[in-house]
Specification:
Elements: H1 2-6, E1 18-20, E2 23-25, H2 34-37, E3 40-45, E4 82-86, E5 94-101, H3 112-125, E6 130-134, H4 144-147, H5 152-160, E7 165-167, H6 177-187, E8 191-193, E9 197-199, E10 210-215, E11 218-226, E12 242-244, H7 247-258, E13 270-276, H8 292-298, H9 300-308, E14 315-317, E15 324-330, E16 338-344, E17 350-358, E18 365-374, H10 395-403, E19 406-408, E20 411-412, E21 415-416, E22 423-425
Parallel strand pairs: 5-6, 6-7, 7-8, 11-13, 13-14, 14-16
Antiparallel strand pairs: 1-2, 3-4, 5-17, 9-12, 10-11, 15-16, 17-18, 19-22, 20-21
């Protein structure tokens, strides 16, 4: 039994459990496996036997001239019973499903219905609630049908898909910061997160930094950041009032806030980082697999995301580079553990599915999977209501609307003429 005494998970009281011929010690044990350990609330020795007189043993009935036997638990043997407390119900791990997209870029085309259908199919197959998240660039550099309407059709589709939250990408700033805050955000039914976007010359956040969601009894914190190079990628006049900081520093700062035990500033059991930054494109030979190590070696920025993001962050969704990968990356300072690092490519080609098996008592991730799921091959006609995959209210209508030709009023050379020019979908 000595190895058990030395084990970290042993719960043995430091007491004797028997007396025999003047000797005492601890010979009595209750052993339990990992599943039972989740329900153990404590252990102790019930000292009712070992210290009693020998004559009181049940085996001594009529042994003496005078009977000391009594029908009670006392002195049933020369051993004290070991008592183990168990909770009435086991607390089962929570299976959390996250669905992610990135760099959609207003791709409203023949792929839109299969893309939406894939999300709905994954939701339907999940064991519980899901979160749908984006790592940015939902709009901007869009196809004509969306771009000519300032990407409102894309926002409508993402609203109908019930996108929960999105990091801002650099293209969210294409028309300037004011356009993002005054037009795009009010039109969207999902948050736009930018923890490393600051008011000029300060560390005062210019955008919402994080959002928390209650999912199957867990509080999931989602932090969003954008590439630090955004200032060089968009027109400077539109972003004169803001600046962009180190995304990893911002994620770690907000994560510390979500993990400090102060409910007043937000707390989370699980933390997800949405990075609009990712592993670079590489020229690889035919049949050569792109690995995590290759991406880190090629980009110090990506290496910092993998190696320097706090170990308390459980999932890293990445974006911006339009690459497709789903890696299990080592967690810094936690030897033998990994966490998902994933990017879905671009234009709705894939949906990034991450599953986490979480201990609800501690928030620890016990296991995880990550994969890029290609769009469904189910014919588009079969994905429209009343079939369940696109039964979400208004989704089918918006997806169908995005596929129909534009009827433009007062258009010359593709440019609407006059402030009152009609822009309608037939």
């Amino acid at each position: 039994m000595q190895p058990l005494y030395e084990a970290e998970n042993q719960n043995a009281p430091d007491e004797s459990t028997y007396v025999f011929q003047g000797l005492s010690g601890a010979l009595d044990h209750v052993l339990y496996n990992d599943a039972a350990a989740e329900r153990v609330t404590g252990a102790d020795t019930w000292q009712i036997n070992a210290g009693e007189a020998l004559a009181l043993e049940y085996s001594r009935f009529n042994y003496n001239g005078m009977s000391f036997h009594e029908a009670s638990p006392y002195r049933s043997s020369d051993h004290d019973p070991v008592i183990v407390g168990l909770s009435a119900e086991a607390v089962a791990p929570v299976e959390l499903t996250l669905l992610g997209i990135n760099d959609f870029h207003g791709r409203l085309n023949a792929n839109t219905v299969p893309f939406a259908g894939t999300i709905e199919q994954l939701r339907a197959a999940a064991p519980g609630e899901t979160l749908l998240l984006s790592a940015g660039d939902n709009i901007g550099a869009s196809l004509f049908a969306s771009a000519i309407q300032q990407d409102q059709p894309t926002i409508d589709v993402l609203n109908a898909l019930a996108l929960d939250s999105s990091a801002v990408g650099n293209h969210e700033f294409d028309k300037g910061f004011a356009d993002l805050t005054d037009r795009v955000e009010p039109a969207a039914q999902f948050s736009h997160l930018g923890a490393n976007v600051y008011q000029k010359g300060s560390k005062t956040p210019a955008l919402q930094e994080y959002e928390t969601f209650e999912v199957d009894g867990l509080t999931v914190g989602v932090i969003g950041v954008v590439t630090e190079e955004t200032g060089a990628l968009v027109a400077p006049g539109g972003i004169a009032a803001i600046e962009f900081g180190d995304p990893v520093e911002a994620v770690n700062r907000v994560d510390a806030q979500l993990s400090d035990g102060d409910a007043g500033n937000g707390e989370a059991d699980v933390v997800v980082a949405l990075y609009h930054e990712g592993a670079p494109e590489l020229s690889l030979g035919a049949g050569v697999e792109y690995t995590l190590e290759m991406g880190m070696a090629a980009s110090p920025v990506f290496a910092s995301i993998v190696e320097d993001t706090s170990a308390d962050v459980d999932v890293l969704y990445t974006a911006h580079t339009h690459q497709t990968y789903a890696w299990a990356a080592p967690v810094p300072g936690a030897e033998g553990t990994t966490r998902p690092v994933i990017q879905t490519g671009s234009y709705g080609a894939n949906v990034g599915k991450v599953t986490l098996r979480v201990d609800p008592a501690t928030g620890d991730v016990l296991a995880h999977t990550q994969q890029n799921v290609g769009v469904t091959k189910t014919p588009a006609a079969d994905l429209h209501p009343p079939d369940p995959p696109l039964a979400r209210p208004s989704l089918g209508r918006h997806v169908q609307r995005s596929q129909q030709p534009l009827v433009l009023g007062g258009v010359v050379g593709g440019t609407p003429q006059g402030s009152g020019a009609a822009l309608e979908v037939a």
